[in-house]
Amino acid sequence: MSSNRPKAVPTKQLENDRVIITEWRFAPGAETGWHIHGHDYIVVPGLDGQLLLESKEDETIVENLADLSAGISYFKGAGIEHNVVNPNDFEFHFVEVELK
Predict the structure, then answer these.
(1) What letter would DSSP give residue 8?
(2) Average pLDDT for residues 18-28, to the nearest whole number?
(3) What is the domain partition of the chain in residue ranges?
(4) Order of strands, sheet of 49-57, starting from the edge strand that comes earlier in the sequence
(5) Which pLDDT belongs to residue 2?
(6) CA 22, CA 89: separation in Å to the nearest integer?
(7) DSSP string spanning the chain?
(8) How far apart are CA 25 and CA 91, in angstroms?
(9) How confident is the model over 65-85, as pLDDT tens digits?
(10) Could you say which architecture CATH assigns to the domain 9-99?
(11) Which pLDDT value is given to residue 61?
(12) What is the pTM of this model?
């Protein structure tokens, strides 16, 4: 499942035996690409905006639009295949903390 969308840019800030911390920057329309987290993780948005969260259910892509607020974190569990897309007309960024 490939896409012509631009790719979000990850910058690993820290990795040790307990966490992986990555900043993600998304140009308008950019995506992470389909992936599965091997660890539970926390996302800390850097500004207010929306993200389009795509997941699969019975081989059908399910899209959910999430309203996010700067500094208001959310938690997700490992193991769910998904793609994250920036539907905003501005750059969006967040910090992701994966718990080992």
Answers:
(1) P
(2) 98
(3) 9-99
(4) 60-68, 49-57, 82-85
(5) 58
(6) 23
(7) ----SPBPEEEEEEE-SSEEEEEEEE-TT-B--SB--SSEEEEEESSSEEEEEEEEETTEEEEEEEEE-TT--EEE-TT--EEEE--SSS-EEEEEEEE-
(8) 7
(9) 999 999 999 999 999 899 999
(10) Sandwich (2.60)
(11) 84
(12) 0.91
83 Cβ partners below 8 Å, 6+ apart?
3, 31, 32, 33, 34, 35, 53, 54, 55
Q: Which amino acid is at 66?
A: A
* Residue range 32-67, pLDDT digits in tens: 999 999 999 999 999 999 999 999 887 788 889 999
Rounded CA-CA distance 86/91 in Å is: 8
Tokens 């639009």 correspond to what residue? 65
> Which SS3 state, helix, strand or coil, does residue 73 take?
coil
Residue type, 14: L
